[in-house]
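Lab notebook, bench 4. The sequencing result for the construct came back, and we need a structural model before the next group meeting so we can plan mutations. Quick request posted to the team channel:

Model the 3D structure of this chain.
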Amino acid sequence: MNVKAVFNRFTFLVGARYGISRKHSQLVSFISRLSTAGLVIGVALLIVVMSVMNGFDRELRERILGILPQAMIYHREGIADYVSLIDQLKQDKRILAAAPFVQIQGLFNHQKHVAPANLFGVDPAQEVKLSSLEQYLPAGALVLLSQNSQAVIVGQGIADKLHVNVGDKITLIIPRSADANATPGILMLDVIAILKSNTNVDQTLALMNLNAASQASEFPGKVSGIRLQVDDLFEAPSIVMNAVNQLPVGYFGSHWMRTHGTIYEAIQMSKSLVSLLLFLIIGIAAFNLISTLIMVVVDKQGDIAILRTLGASSKEIIGIFMIQGGLIGLIGTSIGAILGVLLSWVVTDLIAGLERLLGIQFLHSDVYPISYLPSNLYWSDVVQVSATSLFICFFAALYPAWRASRVQPADALRYE
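Done. Here's the predicted structure in token form:
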């Protein structure tokens, strides 16, 4: 088909006039507004939802995995010479930084309250080089942790369960997994700070001095493993496997995809399913566009016949109604895209304000990965959604435009 024969100055002028004209029947005008509103809602919601899902993805990578280890190397009997091991591991250029840690599974007790804990003994001087812990702690908290062997930092969720504040003393009970009949270890610790990252990390994470945690562990004087920071999160399984293969028997590894991979997969699946659902909403709006244009064709049969008698070709009639449908799609998509971008920028503050107003919290970090609604707008998503919407509207206008080109002037003017 010759494009110039379909789209020219004449078809643009007439198509644009039909598109913005309000001289239709009330039913046609109503369906036209309905299809435009459907496009606006569908496009805006799709952009907002994709931004929220991108926000969850960003918070998982930058916030949760900025606190918890991205990859770990363990030894079944603890690691004594961790300095040499770190030097060996760093020979892999994909490993950006490494630090020792002691991991203890225990139970905190305060008065009549208890809370499970995933306690990490860390070296604050090395930890700040590969984690974002310092961002979520009061100034100087890590320095106090390195100086006080009885100091502990607990997550906000643990503090809430135990009803403790900074300055309180809590009891740490450490079971002995090697001997079921052995008396569990008991430590009295001082809460020097509360970790508040607004993620599910706050529910179980606690921090101690590396040396103090080592003495309380099953292998005193040793560390549990080496924490790694990698240049590409998705290369973590390969990096761990490569490191373990080069180490003696007894070493094993883990990585974030084992501990938090299900959360990441759930986010990606939810993003795909919700996007599909909202694209269907755009599709429904496009079907409304088909109904609108067909009714316009019926309503404008006399005008079409006059245009044909004045010399307009069938291709130009197709162009007129294609432009009309495209104009409706462009208006709906543009308004929806602008609205979606604006909502994506304010949705976090909007939901936070709504939570304060109603006195409720929609997201809890003991159920969801984070306790607030994040948003991260990608302009590529806006372009993709807008282009898809316009593409759907373009093809939705094909059939009504073809129907308009089949109108016979003699039949249309017979009863005029």
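The longest strand covers residues 95-110.
Will bring this to the meeting.
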